[in-house]
Design goal:
By secondary structure, the chain is an alpha/beta fold. The chain is built from twelve helices and 17 strands.
Length: about 450
């Protein structure tokens, strides 16, 4: 029956030697049997046997009905199996995504933490007026390159945010031309190292846009970094702006490199793809650029130069009424008189703790340090504090515990400093009572501004 895939009628199973349950049927007083397969596209999903205590003559109508019923049941079983398999695959995919997110977050933390004391020390030392100009420029170069490394780490996290629809924008009026020039300054030392000529020609009548200034600068930085990467020594990078249409601001970044492989052009803005085979890097920058530009209601294009070697990237953004904005508008706390603060630093990374403590003491603050939750709790219970600056991952607990305990006994503010910088990490810090969350690596100016803003809040 299974081979024929058709229902079978047995008048008396007790006389059928081929029936495998003949003896059981005989002892039970069963004779007649109707057997039909449960058919589906994948094959036979089972067999149903109906037995009677009487010897029965074949019934063709019943055989046809059983055949139709077997198909319905077989298809139902197949559908349920498919649904169960899809559910298992979905759960496995979700678990894999969660594992990937945890890995990326942990990787980010491990990569950021050792960069933190380097950036803080280099940026603070670069402000020393007793140093000669060459030393200051060298230290500023260190700062720029550490910040660049941090941005590469951010690319990994941004891709995860974009894929999950969790990339958030902080929109404000800003001057896109100023953002472009700042991004150009970040890569300036790299251009100089290759003796590249950078020409800047901002001809657009209005550079003001409503945007997330950090994200738009990130787009410019990625495109300039790519131009530098693929342009040979003594080459040229040209950056210009123009009015693409009424209310549309366009930026064009072109280089004199070898251009984009035509075969790879369709995948150019896809994650982990690159415009040149063997180009190196992760292949994330352009995918992130496209997502950010589109979130701003803009467009991004790529093409090869029609009149020579090199690539051209064009960004179109929506311009807003020109109100004379010369730089990103950021909300800053009103200036307050400087005062000495008693600050507790909770940080188990020795180099970070030492550099941060030294810099804050240099600013005139009274600084205490603790590498663990236990030691931090001992200090805050015995000393009056003005500010807590705490790492979140600690050997015997976390910074949330310290902040919650501080909130119980004092109105002192807290700043979380962590290598974890996803949106959920920032929200957890806020929920625990921290007034600010800084993602490593941080520079001394960022820390100083945050301390001023947090301690001026009422």
């Amino acid at each position: 029956m299974i081979a024929s895939r058709k229902p079978a009628w047995i008048a008396d199973v007790t006389v059928q030697s081929a029936f495998p349950r003949r003896e059981v049927a005989r002892k039970s007083g069963l004779h007649g049997a109707l057997l039909f397969p449960l058919l589906a596209s994948s094959g036979v999903n089972g067999v149903i046997e109906l037995l009677s205590d009487s010897v029965l003559a074949p019934d063709e109508d019943l055989l046809r009905l059983a055949g139709a019923l077997g198909i319905e049941i077989g298809l139902y079983i197949e559908r349920k199996r498919s649904e169960e398999e899809l559910r298992r695959q979905k759960e496995a995919a979700e678990e894999a995504n969660q594992a990937k997110d945890r890995f990326l977050a942990a990787l980010s933390h491990e990569l950021r933490t050792p960069l933190n004391p380097v950036l803080m020390w280099a940026c603070a030392t670069a402000q020393d007026k007793t140093l000669d100009d060459d030393m200051k420029e060298g230290l500023r170069m260190v700062c720029r390159n550490v910040e660049m490394e941090a941005r590469l780490i951010d690319d990994l996290l941004d891709l995860t945010r974009i894929a999950r629809g969790k990339l958030q924008l902080n929109l404000q009026p800003c001057d896109a031309g100023a953002l472009l020039q700042h991004a150009l300054e970040i890569v300036r030392s790299q251009l100089t190292g290759k003796n590249l000529h950078a020409a800047l020609d901002l001809q657009a009548s209005n550079h003001e846009i409503m945007a997330d200034a950090t994200r738009i600068e990130q787009v410019f930085w990625n495109l300039l970094k790519n131009a530098n990467k693929f342009t040979p020594e003594n080459g040229e990078i040209v950056v210009r702006s123009y009015d693409a249409a009424p209310g549309v601001l366009a930026f064009e970044i072109s280089d004199s490199g070898r251009g984009i492989d035509p075969a790879l052009m369709p995948k150019l803005f896809t994650a982990f793809e690159q415009g040149i085979r063997g180009g190196g890097g992760l292949g994330l920058g352009l995918a992130i650029c496209k997502a950010i530009v589109q979130m701003h209601g803009g467009k991004i294009y790529a093409a090869n130069k029609p009149d020579g070697p090199g690539a051209v990237f064009t960004i179109e953004l929506i311009a807003v009424a020109d109100r004379g904005v010369n730089a990103p508008l950021t909300s800053r706390a009103e200036a307050v008189p400087w005062r000495t603060l008693r600050i507790l630093i909770v940080e188990d990374h020795g180099h970070t703790a030492a550099v941060m403590s030294s810099l804050l003491k240099r600013e005139g603050h009274d600084v205490l340090s603790a590498p663990t939750v236990r030691e931090a709790l001992d200090i805050l219970r015995s000393r009056k504090l003005d500010l807590l600056v705490s790492d979140l991952g600690l050997p015997d607990g976390n910074g949330f515990e310290v902040m919650r305990e501080l909130a119980k006994i004092s109105d002192a503010k807290g700043i979380a400093v962590s290598g974890y910088g996803m949106d959920e990490d920032i929200q957890r810090s806020s929920d625990a009572g921290f007034s600010a969350h800084l993602t490593k690596p941080i520079n001394v100016q960022e820390l100083q501004e945050t301390i001023q803003r947090v301690t001026s809040e009422t």
